[in-house]
Amino acid sequence: MFDLSGQVALITGSSRGIGLAAARALGLQGATVIINGRDASSLARARDYLAAEGIDTLVLPFDITNIDQSIGAVDTVLKTVGKIDIFFSNAGIQHREKLLDFPLSEFERVVFANLTAQWALGRHVAAGMHEQGYGRIIFTGSITALLGRREVTAYTAAKAAMHGIVRQWATELSASGITVNAIAPGYIKTELTTRLWTDPEFTAWLENRVPMKKWGEPDDVASTLVFLAARESRYITGQVVVVDGGLSSSM
């Protein structure tokens, strides 16, 4: 089960953290993985890491916030590789500041990166999947779209809208053999959350609040991704799968 041999997966923001764990998980199931990021040296390290695991890896550097560049990169893949079967839209940014001090410019920047750019690139990938009559689109959502959290107003707004897009796209794309889902991670220990997991006070709060009493790891998200990317999940679409150690289910 969950054999991805012969399939091509594009993972944005995959030079580290959840994205890299996702590339490894998909690759170990047989997929050819296309990793993406903005920094060439980080991508090279990620490629070498995956190659050491015997994973067929291609490198596709682009900045998701440059829509013309990202669409051009996908077109290059479609011309050279021929298809994209799995798209994990994972790249994102964060800005933490109190609501009443939050600059409009930062709100617009975060929403553009985490919503508008994801929508534009995802729609372009979906067009290719529509032509081939098959595809798996998975977005990275967030627990903050379900439960409020101070100082992340722009991120929360973007991810809540992304959850809505998942349901709306599933409605439009299902007839083309495309499923659209999202994974909403809770608190996962990555570089994006370094400020939090290096804070002893926050970690103490989290261990008290999360029923499993611990931080999540990137592999916890990656294993869920494999399921949603596989043919076996063919009747699951329009869903947000929460991976949070029970945080959202416990008062």
Task: Put the structure in a nutshell.
Helices cover 46% and strands 13% of the residues.
Layout of strands and helices, then pairs:
Blueprint: E1 8-11, H1 17-28, E2 32-35, H2 40-52, E3 57-59, H3 67-80, E4 86-89, H4 104-132, E5 135-140, H5 153-173, E6 178-185, H6 194-197, H7 200-209, H8 218-229, E7 240-243
Parallel strand pairs: 1-2, 1-4, 2-3, 4-5, 5-6, 6-7
Helix pairs in contact: 1-8, 3-4, 4-5
What does this structure look like?
The chain has eight helices and seven strands. With 251 residues, the chain is α/β, with parallel strands linked by helices. The chain has one domain: NAD(P)-binding Rossmann-like Domain (Rossmann fold), CATH 3.40.50.720. It has a seven-stranded parallel beta sheet, sandwiched between helices. Strand 1, helix 1 and strand 2 form a beta-alpha-beta unit. The protein is globular. The N and C termini lie far apart (36 Å). The mean pLDDT is 96.
